[in-house]
Amino acid sequence: RGELDIDISHPYGGLEFNWFRDSLHRRNWRTTARAGLSLTRAIRLEGRAGYGEFKQTYDENVADPNVTPVIEKRRVKMREKFTGITIGVRHEPADKKRSPVSVSGGLERHEYRGDAEFEEWIYMANLAIRPKLPIDIQLQFEHEMIPSARSVAEGVAYDLYAYNGAYLIRDWWEIWNSFLYYDINDGNDRFHGGISSLWEVSEEVGLRFGIEYDYIDAKHRKPDYWTPYRLHEWWLVAGLRNNIHEFYYDISLKFGIAREDVRPEDESAYAALVERATLLDFDPGDGPESEWVDIFSASAALRKNLGRHWAAHWEGVYNEAPGYYEYSTIAGISLTF
């Protein structure tokens, strides 16, 4: 049979739960059910549906600007339900020297209810190629809502343009780099860039050590989601990755230092405060500073086959940055035939 001849096979299904928290008081969760099959040797189709919730609390000054502030705590809550479909195509050239190509695209309809009510179409596309045997490149586009209750209630969405590359220099040496650009419809944008080098020191257990550098920059500060300004992060990385007796693990610990530059508007505000303090003869206090601080990150991904058809997986992530932290987990089970 050819790659495009109808040959329905390999049906599968699964259920997944995603949970997220951060220091901006975002409290999100989502449950997704999915099922799919192969239509041909090259084409796979998947349908999914789910339900989720976004919560966020924040402080608001309800007094007039010229009087003593009166702070009240506010809460925003949004619920979502969605259905969607994804189709993927993979071409494996007969000539093994040529690159395999994988293309996928998806479309979802999301309904949001709560402090606002509306519908939004979410869509994504992905291209993966291997121009040479030791090089893997992935290009991604995604249109999605900012995962913040306040942002969702205000209809804030982003378009993501992403590049990820992995280069196997030697069997024991891998270099990875990525560039991500978020074009956000509230007038903001955010850029992520990173590069890392990992060396395998024990093939038996998959022990790796390495270094990593990340740069993240958001044009404007927003209280609803993370918007660092010219953030530099340097990491020392230690990891374990292997597949033993149908049990896969990928565990990583990162210890580093980070520095975020002072935004120009903060420098201007402090300069105005110093000028006012000089006129009125009071101490303006210390100004905003950009200094290196310690940071930490940990992640783990586990997958275990449960017999011939069932498998369970779990992922957990904790990340720190100056003045910010987040943690998330994903747990799921899948059935394949």
Describe this structure in words.
The protein is mostly beta strands. Helices cover 7% and strands 67% of the residues. The protein contains 2 helices and 16 strands. It is globular.
Q: Give start-end ranges of low-pLDDT stretches.
A: none
Whole-angstrom Rg:
24 Å
Spell the H/E element sequence: EEEEEEEHEEEEEEHEEE
Instruction: Give the strand line-up of the largest sheet.
Output: 1-2-3-4-5-6-7-8-9-10-11-12-13-14-15-16
Q: How would you state the average pLDDT, rounded?
A: 94
Report the portion of residues in β strands: over 45%
The profile of the biggest β sheet is: 16 strands, antiparallel, barrel
Helix content: under 10%
What's the gist of this structure?
The chain has helices spanning 149-153, 264-280; strands at residues 9-22, 26-38, 43-61, 71-91, 101-114, 118-132, 135-145, 157-170, 173-184, 189-202, 207-218, 231-244, 247-260, 293-306, 310-321, 324-336. Strands 1-2-3-4-5-6-7-8-9-10-11-12-13-14-15-16 form a 16-stranded antiparallel beta barrel.
